[in-house]
C-alpha cells in the first residue's frame, strides 16, 4: 500500500513538473518578437538621426545667411 501511494505521488509530481516546464517562459521562442523590437528600434534611431540632421542643416543655413548679410569689418568702421 505504501509503495503504491509513493508511486502515485511520484507520478503526480512528475506530471506537475512536466506541465510547469512546458509553460516556462524560458522555453518559449521569442526570436520573432525580439527581431521586431530590434527593427523598430533601428527605425526610431534612423528617424531621430534624420530629424537631428535636418535641425542641424537649418541652423547652419541660418548662420550662413546671417554671416552673408553682416556688413564687412571695413564697412562697420566707416
How would you characterize this protein structure?
The radius of gyration is 35 Å and the shape is rod-shaped. 83% of the residues lie in helices and 0% in strands. It has one domain (2-77). The protein is an all-alpha fold and 78 residues long. It has three helices and no strands.
Provide keyphrases for this structure:
mainly alpha, rod-shaped, 78 residues
List the helices and strands and how they pair.
Layout lengths: L1 H21 L8 H39 L3 H5 L1
Helix content: over 70%
Query: Oligomerization state of this entry?
Result: single chain
Note the main sheet.
Answer: none
Which structural class do the helices and strands define?
mainly alpha
In angstroms, what is the radius of gyration?
35 Å
Amino acid at each position: 500500500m505504501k509503495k503504491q501511494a509513493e508511486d502515485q505521488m511520484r507520478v503526480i509530481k512528475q506530471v506537475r513538473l512536466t506541465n510547469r516546464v512546458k509553460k516556462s517562459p524560458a522555453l518559449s521562442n521569442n526570436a520573432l518578437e525580439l527581431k521586431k523590437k530590434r527593427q523598430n528600434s533601428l527605425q526610431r534611431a534612423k528617424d531621430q538621426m534624420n530629424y537631428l540632421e535636418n535641425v542641424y542643416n537649418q541652423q547652419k543655413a541660418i548662420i550662413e545667411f546671417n554671416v552673408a548679410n553682416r556688413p564687412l569689418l571695413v564697412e562697420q568702421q566707416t
